[in-house]
């Protein structure tokens, strides 16, 4: 879709539904942060895939359930306390990076990617150095208590300019 000023506008069902209020939280993550998180996940996709493939060759079982894992029946987890959000926020703090200043493009119109390839590379290197990953069964992964990260506090503390 294109607006009156010839700016391209990406409209999606998921984005629109995300704007609806819910009783779960009074604070909604800014869309720029969601976009950055998704682009950050894309940037480390190869690391996650390589970790899964390498560990599956070793015949690993889920450390929580004891179930044998396979490519179709396994999830890669960022071990607490260095969860994905904790790693990304530490990277943002280290780089004084505010999500509003991060440009996210899309690959094939649907896959979020960092527009700045240097940023993607730096994040990928940071993740490779600091992440502790493990393979879990899908049931065990879903049962983990999701740690909430206080993004509001970090975003408000960062000094940034466009």
Summarize the structure.
This protein is mainly alpha-helical. The protein is 44% helix and 10% strand.
Fold blueprint:
Layout: H1 13-18, H2 31-43, H3 45-57, E1 75-78, H4 84-95, E2 104-107, E3 111-114, H5 117-130, E4 133-136, H6 138-143, H7 151-157
Antiparallel strand pairs: 1-4, 2-3
Task: Explain this structure.
This protein is mainly α and 162 residues long. It has one domain. The protein has seven helices and four strands, in the order H-H-H-E-H-E-E-H-E-H-H. It has helices at residues 13-18, 31-43, 45-57, 84-95, 117-130, 138-143, 151-157; strands spanning 75-78, 104-107, 111-114, 133-136. The strands form two sheets. It has a two-stranded antiparallel sheet. The protein has a two-stranded antiparallel ribbon with strand order 2-3. Strand 2 (104-107) and strand 3 form a beta hairpin. The longest helix has 14 residues, at 117-130. The radius of gyration is 18 Å and the shape is globular. The model has no long low-confidence stretch (mean pLDDT 83).
Output the structural class.
mainly alpha
Residue windows where pLDDT falls under 50 for at least 5 positions: none
- The total of beta strands comes to 4
Query: Strands of the biggest beta sheet: in what spatial order?
Result: 1-4
Order of H and E elements: HHHEHEEHEHH
Radius of gyration: 18 Å
- Inertia-based shape: globular
* Oligomeric assembly: single chain
**Residue fraction in strands:** 5-15%
The count of domains is: 1
Number of helices: 7
Question: Main β-sheet: number of strands, strand sense, barrel status?
Answer: 2 strands, antiparallel
For the terminal residues, how far apart are their CA atoms?
26 Å
Approximate helicity band: 40-55%
Average pLDDT metric: 83
